[in-house]
Input
Amino acid sequence: MFVSCIYCIILTEGNYNIFLVIITEDNISMKLKVILQSIALSFIGLAYYSCTGLNEDTVDRIPFVENLIREMSVEEKVGQTAQVTLDAFTKGDNIYTSYEPIELEGALLQKAIHDYHLGSILNTANNKALSVDTWHNLIDSIQSCAAKSATSIPVLYGIDAIHGATYTAGATLFPQQIAQAATWNRDLVYDAARVTAYETRASSIKWTFSPVLDLGRDARWARMWETYGEDPYLCAELGVQAVKGYQGENMNSDSTVAACLKHFVGYASNSGKDRTPVELSNTTLREYYLPAFQASVDAGAASVMINSGIINGVPVHASYEILTELLKNEMGFNGLVVTDWADIENLYNRDKVASSHKEAIKMAINAGIDMSMIPYDYERYCDLFVDLVNEGEISMERLDDAVRRILNLKYRLGLFDDVSNNQNNYSKFGSDDFIAKAYNTAAEAITLLKNTDNILPLKKGVKILVSGPNANSMRTVNGGWSYSWQGEKVELFAQEYNTIFESLQNKFGKDRVQYVAGVEYFMDGVYHNEHNVNIKEAVDAAKDADVIVLCLGENSYTEKPGDLHDLMISENQEELALALAKTGKPMILVLNEGRPRIIRNIEPHVEAVVQTYLSGNFTGDALADILSGDINPSGKLPYTYPMFSNTLVVYNHKPSEESTTPEGMYDYGGGFFPQYEFGFGLSYTSFEYFDFNVSKSEFSKDEDIVVSIKVKNIGEVAGKEVVQLFSRDVFASVTPDVKRLRGFDKVELAPGQEKEVVFTLNAKDLSFINSKGERVTESGEFVLMIDDLSASIRLK
Output
């Protein structure tokens, strides 16, 4: 028999008394029961927060949730920790393939929710985007099923909405994170997250697995484009903006979602391949990989997803030291910790640290995992988990802590109050306003890396040959996690947008823009391979052109399918470039890639280089406006672009990695030789820096340092400039980096206009992790640098 409890609170001189009224299922309707519970919840919250002085953001023990936990059985609690993919509950030939149109299999769903008390569902069906109407029908059916279960606990639905509502047809897709980072514009990153939250919520989904706060410090890594680049400070600043954009002031609103920081922490590898081991010292982990996560935890991020890799021989999903001692205890994270795909099973299946699935569950949950992205075999997971609790191998305290974190998030998202969305509330879905924001982000991301003799912008009336495998594809400009996991289904959803070739036709005239691919990708499925190699046809077409726009790079990919053995751009593409160069026609190299592929053999033969990254559906339009001069490029590299496959050195490297030759030794040609440096990017105008001032030359640990500089547009067109403040610790107990980014600001200047940019630093901003794993700022000399200006300061 279901028992509904109503708490009546009487406040008396700062104290409160609670009286319990019990109403059984026999004498109350379901609708009235929900209403009464909501009233009770409101009274409890009011009393609790009034008497304790605490608020929702800082309180772990929410009375409604605590009461619910007390009433739940072990089986019901365990079920809350289980997360299963949508395909497991749809009608189809098997659990991996769903019929079209997508429809839930009621018996499968009821078994999971009513018998196993499932807490969460994720992902799309058939690995592709669904319409808003389909999402509403699916989510409403799932929540309706949950409302009729013994506990009536709603299901928490999560999705990879990482650069827009990527699994909703018609949503606004923004540039991927690496391109957003190239804007160096906090406001644009915030706006992208706000729009994504709005359109994800419009799909009845309230949890996004974003942002990625991993560092892109290895150009070989298949997930580099999912990051904000290689620098801890840039990543931290933009990550906080994303969290604020997703969650707003209150997650229980029609336009906000819960953010999920991923992948905690130290997602890297020695080999450059995804989900492979890395040796990572405590000093390195804390110096580079931790700051962005700490900043977003401090900003109130609701959830964290765990690194699928292995650090120093220990899978992160099994590390109590990282998940509980570091994340939950030291960093003060009070939210939900969720695994990545099947990673508890991987402790047994792949990593061989658990001798059985049962032991894998024990290891992960006791390490600090709260929710398992299973993603299919939830019956085995739940049955084994219950056995572990009954056997005392997982304590009730640990289980309650996990369930508390899950239910707290559901409560803060308003799922206990209203689990459905009114489609009529989302009139701005796919609106012109949102489209303009996505376009502006792409326009500020695209980065000009070379412009010999100011060949760009192109003159009016020019005849253009567009060539290369990336010239006429919407898939390549969007990348993975776009309408489908690997991005292979982009063409099904993005036909209304313009490829690079189509945008150039629209801008310069169809009669003046010709397209010959020369090399093409396989577009069906997930392939790195190329076909239809017809270089001669492209060379012949170049005879009638004034200029060649050569679009090279990569096809879409992510995670393990994106692993590669050679960072060089493909042999076919290099051959195409060199053959076109022999025609003598000036060439603009457009790079459309998720990571920087080696181009050193091509770069000397082209007059200009433009990096578009993966800038989304408006890549072509923004690029055409830049090549024509309607937009002045302002993007800056968020990573170091390598020149050699064996010299993958990031900008904040150690002095010993510089190109220096010891006295009496031969020059072996080592050192730091990038193709383009971190933070680099050209403009169609020129900027002058002057009046570099520091408020004091000597400071103490409790004093601020005010750094100011003036920047002037000395060119003939308006432009945007990213002012970058770096520091160098001259001597330290741990070998210091040659320089570190400490601040940045993007300013827009008309011709002849100047602005003053001001940064404020303190001793902590100049700190580092010492050999004991402690964050310290040691006394001594520091050098502050902006452009080619510098000043020395000394910490007393």
Notes: The two ends are 71 Å apart (CA to CA).
